[in-house]
Amino acid sequence: MAPLAGREGEGRTTAKAITGACNLSFLLLVISGPFLWLPKQWTRQHLAPITWFRRGLSGKARDFNWHNVIGLWCAVPLFFVVLTAVPMSYTWANDLIYRMTGSEIPTAARAGGRGGGGPEGRGAGGPVGEAGEARVDQAGRAAAQSQAT
């Protein structure tokens, strides 16, 4: 893992805002690119030059063809990759997914911080839910009793 990954600090909210804006900007580029490059008439004659590599081209024509072909074939996977990154960047997008699926938005994970779930807000680290929290409480009480005696 990178040495700065997951760090907390004053610049974290600014960094999250920047990465979120970059995700949305890239999503806009991925959506608008095919609309700019796809031909108005969808015939084999018009689609072939932008969907398949053409031999015998050189210079700018070859680069233009490669840009069209690679961009068109990469647009669909890139769309899904960037679309799944948006809920990680924005809570409103994450909440929208819960609303669309009819699920309840978890408030405990939001209150717990980044990892959400564990007693210290660092992820579950073991059993999740009330049973996991009860085990942590019992272990804490046992340690306190052993120190008192």
Structure in words:
This protein is mainly α and 149 residues long. The chain has a domain at 12-105. 67% of the residues lie in helices and 0% in strands. The protein has helices spanning 12-37, 44-51, 60-89, 91-101, 107-112, 130-148. Helix 1 (12-37) crosses helix 3 and helix 3 (60-89) crosses helix 4. The chain is elongated.
Topology:
Elements: H1 12-37, H2 44-51, H3 60-89, H4 91-101, H5 107-112, H6 130-148
Helix pairs in contact: 1-3, 3-4
Give the structure's gist in a few sentences.
The chain is mainly alpha-helical and 149 residues long. The chain has helices at residues 12-37, 44-51, 60-89, 91-101, 107-112, 130-148.
> How much beta, percentage-wise?
under 5%
Low-confidence stretches: 115-137
- Terminal residue distance: 42 Å
The percent range for helix content is: 55-70%
Global geometry = elongated
Q: Please work out how many helical segments DSSP would assign.
A: 6
Q: What is the β-strand count? A: 0
* Subunit organisation of the chains: single chain
The ordered string of helix (H) and strand (E) elements is HHHHHH
User: Whole-number average pLDDT?
Assistant: 74
Structural class: mainly alpha
Q: What is the CA-atom radius of gyration, in angstroms? A: 25 Å
Major β-sheet profile = none
